[in-house]
Structure formats: structure tokens, C-alpha cells
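hey so i finally got around to running the thing on that chain from the lab meeting. sorry it took forever, my laptop kept dying and i had to restart like 3 times. anyway pasting the input first so we r on the same page abt which one it is
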Amino acid sequence: MAVLRFQEKLTTPRYQRKEKDVVQGCYTVFYGMPDYFFVSTARIPTERANGIQIMKTCEALADAGAHVELVLPTRFNEITEDRFDYYRVKRNFNIKKIWALDLAPRREPAHPLFYWLQSISFALSALVYLWPQKNAFIHFRYDLPLLIAFTPFFKRRKIICEAHALITGWTRRVMQKCFAVVVVLAAAKEIYAQTDPAGGNRYIVAPDGVSLADFQITESKEQLREELGLPLNKKIIMYTGHFYAWKGINTLIAAAKELDEECAVVLVGGGNRAAEDINRLAHEAGVSHKVMFVGHQPYAKMPRYQKAADCLVLTTVKSGVHEIFTSPLKLFEYMASGVPVVASDSVSVREVLTHRHNGYLVTPEDPRALAEGIRVVLADTHLAASLVQHAAVDVRRYAWDERARRMLAFFNRRATV
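ok and heres what got predicted. didnt touch it at all, straight out
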């Protein structure tokens, strides 16, 4: 019943259209007029996790019955692979590129001015493009220019803001005029609801998710290691993702000093600059022989790397807004991988993992505690098997499809109030 409003939209052949993606030279056939617009300033494909979240969300919303159009800016992109293939998603939604001023055709712009010019120009283009859409849902990941641009829509259009950061001051008051707000943690909803005249009614807690089908891999751990060039005779402790300071990777490097020589710490991801800093830290700690840098890998390869590990590690710093307002994608991928997880005991992790049930939690920023947790998981095969078994069951509720169904049901209920 939750998706009937979407399924009743016109889907006759006269509403079919075929649009060319000028950047990637491919066509997307779109059936029916879009009734759900997902708007993002992101460069897609991207090496950042937000690209996965956006593409998987659009696919899941379309599977749930919405006619989805992803609206993106025209931006230079070094990754030329087809977007749908890159993220392993079905071609069940449309992608529309609209104009934006892109003065920095690089992955890491040299000056914040480039970001603001691109973001403001895209927001104005989105405002013009979406102006005729009076009955559609317009969903965007929080971006200040987009929030301001969509203010004329608040009374007559269903604007959905997805907030993955702490929004404060007047911008929070503006955000709280949206039709609905998506947050990824219950702790974030509680904070926002305290200052919202509508209380918590405007908010839905929808943690990030995972595509369980991507982890249906038949090759053995040994076969995967041979394919990926990973050590065959080592216990592999793996971290995947970016190396931002708040991710706490330095704790894992320090913990490597406490681990046996049979252990190899494999880092998959990170930008070039961050990798150089971590590599220098490993040399200074005298553990460079234990640490292997793989570099950024396409999303399609990540499940294969994760399944090749003996232990997957998720580190964070002790405090900060990140642990309340972000939901690490890697956590759900780790749970689906069939490999035991050792993670920092933070707010965001604790909403998903329970110590010694579906993961092993350790004190954040404590190298010795992290090393001890890794040793326990590697040595206690019965505990490791139990962690994996419970994680495999618990992760099902975090599938992208389940997330999309919950969001659509929530939006439909609000639309009928």
C-alpha cells in the first residue's frame, strides 16, 4: 500500500522518453513521468562513499515503485566508466545532467571558491529545472545553496532534506521547514527534534545500507587473495575507505606495532595525499613492513577485497559530530562480508553493533585495545563464527531496498496528513 501513489502514475508509451548522456555517450530509456527527483551536487562516479549511497538509493526507490530521476551537475570527471556499471545498479531510473559552472576540473579543487561557484550555479539550475514539478517529491542531500534555492518550494512542494552533518543556527531553522528530513542515526533525530516546532514528526531515521547481492561471491578466500594480489600466508587485518583524520586510521597503524608478525594490515582506499601521510606514519612507527597500501578501488571490487580478509576494522575518533551524524557505509558492507568486525565503540557504531554479538567493540583511539580486539577475534574461532552469523542476520534490515520502502511509506503518510 505504501507505494500505490507511485504506481498509479502514468506509464503509457506516450510518456516514454530516451535521453542521451552526453558525458558518457550512452542512452537511458525512462518509462513514465518522474515523480521522485533526487538532487545531488556530487560528481558521479566518484571515489567517495556518497556516490554509492546516492546511486543505490535511487535504484532501491525505483524498485519500490517510484519513478526516479537523479539530477546531477555537469562536472568534469576523471572516472569515465558508465555510472550504472560502476556501482552495479539496475538501469531502472533516469539520470539528468543540468548546467553548473565547473571551474576546477580536478578531484580536489584548490580553493573553496570553486566549490561555491559550482554549487550555487547548480542550485539555480535545479530551481529552474524543477519549478514545473508541483506534485513530485524532491529529495536532496544537504547542501546550503540547494536548501536556499528550494525555499520557494516549501509550501507547495514536498521537499525532503537528507542531513549527513550537523546543521545549526538559521540553516537548521530553514531545514526544519522542509516536508521531511532524513537522518541516519536516532541520536541525530533526537538533537534536531529538540528545536523543531513539529518535534520528531518531520524526521525519519534511515541508516545507510548495503546491497546483499553484491556479496554473493562463490570464490574461496584463497582464490580471492590470489586474484587481488594479497598475501596468502598472513592473517589479513583490513580497513577500507578514506583516510580522513576523524576516521582514526592512525590508531590502526599504531595497533600494528602490537600485532604478531603473521598479521598484515591492508588499507584499501584513501586519497593520494592521505596515503602519503599514513605511509609516513607507518615508517615512523616501524611497522611499514606490516602495512600494505592497495589504493582506491572501484566499488565493484570492494566486496571481493572485504571477503578476502580475516578481520575487518572500523576506527573512529573519540568524539565529534561525525559519530552522531554519519552512518559509515563500510560498517554494513563489513557485516555482509562474512568476516568478523572489530570496531570503535562510538555512537554511530553502537546503534548497529552489539559487543560480542555481531561485532567486537573497542575503546576509540586506543591502539592497545584495538590490537587486543583483533587478537581475540583471530584466536577465538568460535566467537568469530558467532559474530559473523549474527551480523549476517542483522544486516538484512539494512538492505537498500528495505530502507527505500521505509522512506516511501513515511513520506506517503506525511503527504496524507
